[in-house]
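Input chain follows. Return C-alpha cells only.
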Amino acid sequence: METTQAVFASLAPLGRNVAVIRVDESGLIAVAKPPGMLSHPNKSGEESRALLNASYELNGEFYRWTDSHGKERRAWLLNRLDSATSGVMLLATNEALARHIRILFKTKRIQKMYAALVFGRPAQKREVWRDKLAVHKKGGQIRTGGQGNSPAESEMRWVDTGPHATPPRSLIQLEPRTGRSHQLRVQCAQRHLPIVGDATYGDFRLNRELAKRTGEKRLCLHSFRTSFEYEWEGRRVRFHAEAPLPAEFETLLR
C-alpha cells in the first residue's frame, strides 16, 4: 500500500505550499495548510486556491484527479479550517475510513490544539471558556456572536507574553471542546484578547498599527496538533500529527 509522505506528495496535486506531514498505512493523511488557502473550492475557478489543485465533489466531500499514470485518485476531506487559519488538516484515501474518522470528529473523540497570538495577556494561566454563541449564515458568509443558544467550550492555556511587545501580545494554546464556526476567534475577542490579524472579530486599530510596523497581516491562529486513536481492520492505531508554529508568531511575540 502506498503510505509514505513522498509517495502521496508525488501523486496528489498539492496546493501551493501545502506540505504532507504524515501518511499511515490505513490511508489517513495529515497535511499542513498555509494561511490564505481554502479547505476546498466552493465554486469553479477556485481550485488553484484550495488544499488540492483538483476538482471537488461537495456532496461526497472528496477531491478527485487523474494521476500521471492515468489512474483516477480520490481523497476525502475530514475537517476544515477557515482560509485565514493555518495548520493540520486530515484527508483519507479510503471512503470507508473517511466515514469512520468523521464519526470520531462528530463524537468529539479527536483532540485538536491551536496556537493563537493575541493582543493582551490572559488573567489566568489556564481557564475553561464557556459561552453561548449565535451563528448566522448570510450571502455565503458566516458570522458568529454572543448571546446565542449554541454552547461553545474551549480550554485556554497561557504560554508566553512578549517581554518588549507594545501593546502586550501573548501566545496561548486553545483546545476547542465544541466546534462552532469561528468559535475560537469570537471567544478570544469576547475576553478582550483579540487574535492578532483577525479582520472580522479583532481589534482593527491595533491590527493596522502592527501591520504598518511589521508588514504582517495574517490571522495568527494555527492548528498545530491533531491526535486520536482509532480502530481499523483489527488494529488499534494512535494517530498524531503536528504542524510547526509559524515563524511569524515568534517574531510578532517579541
